[in-house]
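Methods — Computational structure assignment.
A single polypeptide chain was analysed. Its primary sequence is given first, followed by the predicted tertiary structure written as structure tokens.
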Amino acid sequence: MTSTPSDTPNQTETPYLGLAPFLRMSIAGEDLQAVGQDMLVKAIVAGDDANLLMNLSIATLCLGQRDLGLAIQNQALALKRVYHLPASEQPARLRLLMLMVPGDLSANTPLECLLENSDIDLDLYYVTPQAPLPLTVPVPAHDILLVAMSESDENRELLRGLEQVLADWPKPVLNAPQHLPSVGRDVASALLQNTPGLLMPPTLRGTRAQLQAIATGAERLAALFEGCDFPIILRPVGSQAGRDLAKIEGPQDIERYLRDVDAGLFYISRFIDYSGQDGFFRKIRVALIDGAPFACHMAVSSKWMVHYVNAGMYEEAWKREAELAFMTQFESFVQRHRVALDAIAQRTRLDYLCIDCAETRDGQLLVFEIDHAMVVHAMDLQDQFPYKQIHMLKVKNAFRDLLIRLTAPQELNV
């Protein structure tokens, strides 16, 4: 299949790197700022090197400079919309095409992290509502397609358009667009209600005006949002990675929160205390691959808002020992929550999905979020996390096996 000149690699163009090497540097504590500065100097000289600009955009986003990173990404996408990431092992076993959207690090499924050092070629194809399929830029030859874009209000129209385009796609399609809306926070919480052993408090949408009315006492929380009572969890619609996420104890906290957060639409849900008997919070990430669950990590923190990178997992050996015990005994976790995990797989109908969850003291699976755009990787330092490689290899192999199984020639029954 031919490509237009803007999407044909040239011999002088910088190799496209993807997220994985930059995330690895960040985790290892390397000076990503210096790496980004060096790329910036090169980009000024070679302003038409789309791969270099895209690499610089990823590094900038990893440094937390979101606006600058997205501006550089737009420059890269103005030059070309297809980015090729060759498999580390060549010849590649197969070629996976990922349909992407412009955005920050949470905007798409970061498969280059899961498939790092694999024998799978990746092509990242960026589409937008203004430039959807069918495409003016030809689709690269591929063996299987993954809809990698995240679920969001902004992507809803694009996903609807892709449903028709991909309905008769000549290659297997993973995470079909019609199923992706099921991971939206409000949709997911409604979808998973009344599942035995699963707890996911209803997530409701509220406007800024409604929250201001509660803050001033003009309205009661329970009157506007049935089933909600303080404390609640509040976050803007569209926020990821804990951005502007807060626990709200009462109306006075809403007033303070709104002074600091400039958004018009919010998610509201009831706060559940999921601390263990020792007072620590344990947040678990599980991958569902073709319905089968795999352990990705467990973070232990004294704070309710748990992120792996700031939970003290790198500093405190006992927390790593707790994670090792969880991953070693993961099959017991699966057996305890088999009904809940199966329900998530069956109701979402997604081929690849991640779950952030915890276990409550009464034994329920507390689900915080389900999403296909979470980071799954094996990049933690081996001297600190020797067990990670063993368990993450299971995840990597399961996903690779799924790709191979779906692309294998089908035997004819005679």
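Note: The first helix runs from residue 20 to 28.
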